[in-house]
Amino acid sequence: MKHASDRDGAMPSTASQPAQYRAVYIDMHTTNPLQPLYATLQEAQERCEGDLTDAWTGDGQLDLTWQPDTEPVSRWRMMMRTALLRDAVSTGYEVVIADSDTDAALEASEIPSP
Question: Fewest Cβ atoms closer than 10 Å to its Cβ: which of 22, 44, 95, 103?
Answer without folding.
Answer: 103
